[in-house]
Amino acid sequence: MSTIRDVAKLAGVSVATVSRVLNKSGYVNKETERAVKEAIDLLQYVPNTVARGLAIKRMETIALVVPDISNPFFAELGRAAEDIARTYGYSIILCNSDNEMDKEQSYITMLKKRYVDGILFATSTLRTADVNMMNSANIPLVVLDRAPREGTCYVVRSKNYDGARLAVQHLLDEGCKKIAHIYGPQAAPTAMERLQGYEAIAKEQNWYSPSLMADGGFNIKGGMEAVAQLLERHPDIDGIFAGNDLMAVGALKQLQRMGKSIPDQIKLCGFDGIELSQITEPEITTIAQPIYNMGALATRLLIKKIEGVQIEEQNYEFDVELIVRGSTRRERGS
Amino acid sequence: MSTIRDVAKLAGVSVATVSRVLNKSGYVNKETERAVKEAIDLLQYVPNTVARGLAIKRMETIALVVPDISNPFFAELGRAAEDIARTYGYSIILCNSDNEMDKEQSYITMLKKRYVDGILFATSTLRTADVNMMNSANIPLVVLDRAPREGTCYVVRSKNYDGARLAVQHLLDEGCKKIAHIYGPQAAPTAMERLQGYEAIAKEQNWYSPSLMADGGFNIKGGMEAVAQLLERHPDIDGIFAGNDLMAVGALKQLQRMGKSIPDQIKLCGFDGIELSQITEPEITTIAQPIYNMGALATRLLIKKIEGVQIEEQNYEFDVELIVRGSTRRERGS
DNA sequence: GTGAAAGCGCTAACAG
DNA sequence: CTGTTAGCGCTTTCAC
């Protein structure tokens, strides 16, 4: 592998000049520029990222911190992030935090000593203290789905509260007379917002009761267990709003095992709009977030921040969309 | 952030000595070692990976090249890789190749200039030429699921051929009289091996016909289309072996749409053992690969190779396991 | 056992 | 416009 020195020698210029044409920084004569470029592809020279990184203290790398990449929601987010990052010349370092603070912490120190340019946070355990720490360490970050109370950082999220209301209203519209809710971890702001959206509407109904809500841990198994529990408490439930699609899938499974007919006896609505919600039979009605677009926007914002582009807006809230499917409404003709 | 110099100064030694205790290389007096360590945590010194990387030409980073991280199979592989890598102090750089050679190529040059220590390849487009190139560039790689004809590199895979036979035999055992096969991309060796496994058994049967095989592209949609096509050609099909679970899910969906009763009229078996196969109703019988373990082993092998540990065995083939579920056998009592 | 010093390959003043 | 040179922070001979 040839170095910038070789190029300089071959082109008969100094390394500074080569560096200039490489980074399009400073003025350089058209002629010499051509000569340098010629030397570059004659030698098949490729600038060394690490050396550059050491000099400028940035490695053109973005870290993606998710609870677990094998969760399809985060996998899609990751795909979006990598797609965008690549087009800007950045690489993605993958971090699975399992929502554990100490893991998260160890990732952060690891990332700092690697000179990552910025961090994309999509975990629920990020503390305000961490945000401030990153800010003072001067390392840009964008947070997905979580709004830290203070600390300057971009936040990309979707309208969880509105979406939840949309879901419950839809179930109501479809004739449900008693709607339960399966919520996610208390620590996840998204989960709480969806719960609040549910309550906002449910509380106006005469059937409302706190015992209509159960924890489903944002995963399939939890969704199954929550349904079992809820139906034991309230055998007359005829509508369920699950805080995410994973739990909705679990709920559907459990309902089918219990011999319930969906959507006839019980209607079900999820949240997220991941592919999973379409592979069951019936398919699951859901509140879809534009997951890919959220990941893409977050990445673009992060890169802008890294490259010093000033942006006025700090908060980005995506609209969600109700996608009606077989779990809440029979198609005509069936 | 303090540097190795600061530590040296505070401990009253030279940077060389600090480096020695840091890397446990060369002799160093117990006393001075203690002094150095004291200085280190007094200053909260953290060695800089980039500077180290430039000096030794390795960044303690592993690249993971997959077709698409949002495919659950690769997401699980990715999770395994990251888990293992982290325990050894390595980071994972994520690359989505979409099975496109030029993308793959551009990733490779990008990775080289970043001094990645090794590459984990889980894509079907890796050419022998690439393997040789990596070998001559002296960058270790481990290949998942694909066996390049030549070139030295570790290969981790599972018994696709045997697994396919297992699947077909199981369908036969359950009484199927005409079994179709949905296969994946010709370019994917795994897909071809599974197809061969299918043919090996099917050809012995009097119902065998090449028209019983259809391409499903290893994805859900392809699975749906393949089923539609197959059933048009052969309305009397009563068993389907799908080359992966994604296609099996699609197949199930299409079958249900066509009003077929599973497993009564048609029995269905997939391949891979991803979580998806358990969320449908009925759950899908499948040939499970130990995905996480494969990813974990591949990563461990790669790290050993990186760290110069000699290993005799080059090929690792995992056993697969038939997991019987509702798509091929009714539980007693139903 | 320990230190001095020469890199690793590139950037960025600072002169000219 | 272009070259010189001093780093970036760490590793690694080679002496002592």
Summed over residues and divided by their number, the pLDDT of chain A gives a mean of 94
- The CATH architecture of the largest domain in chain A can be named as 3-Layer(aba) Sandwich
Strand content of chain A: 15-25%
Overall number of structural domains of chain A: 3
Give the CATH H-level superfamily of the largest domain in chain A. Response regulator
The name CATH uses for the topology of the largest domain in chain A is Rossmann fold
> In total, how many beta strands of chain A?
12
Total helical segments of chain A: 12
Summing up helix and strand content along with how strands pair, one would put the structural category of chain A as alpha/beta
What do these coordinates show?
The structure is a homodimer of 334-residue chains. With 334 residues, chain A is α/β, with parallel strands linked by helices. Chain A has 3 domains: 53 residues, lambda repressor-like DNA-binding domains (434 Repressor (Amino-terminal Domain), Orthogonal Bundle); 127 residues, Response regulator (Rossmann fold, 3-Layer(aba) Sandwich), CATH 3.40.50.2300; 130 residues, Response regulator (Rossmann fold). Chain A is built from 12 helices and 12 strands. At the A-B interface, helix 4, helix 5, strand 2, helix 6 and helix 11 of A face helix 4, helix 5, strand 2, helix 6 and helix 11 of B. Chain A binds a DNA duplex (16 and 16 nucleotides) through helix 2 and helix 4.
SSE layout and pairing:
The structure is a homodimer of 334-residue chains.
Chain A: H1 4-11, H2 15-23, H3 30-43, H4 49-56, E1 61-66, H5 72-87, E2 91-96, H6 101-112, E3 118-121, H7 128-136, E4 141-144, E5 154-158, H8 160-173, E6 179-183, H9 189-202, E7 213-215, H10 220-233, E8 239-242, H11 245-257, E9 267-272, E10 285-288, H12 291-306, E11 315-318, E12 321-323
Parallel strand pairs in A: 1-2, 1-3, 3-4, 4-5, 5-11, 6-7, 6-8, 8-9, 9-10
Antiparallel strand pairs in A: 10-12
Chain A binds a DNA duplex (16 and 16 nucleotides) through residues 3-5, 13-20, 22-23, 25-29, 32, 47-48, 50-57.
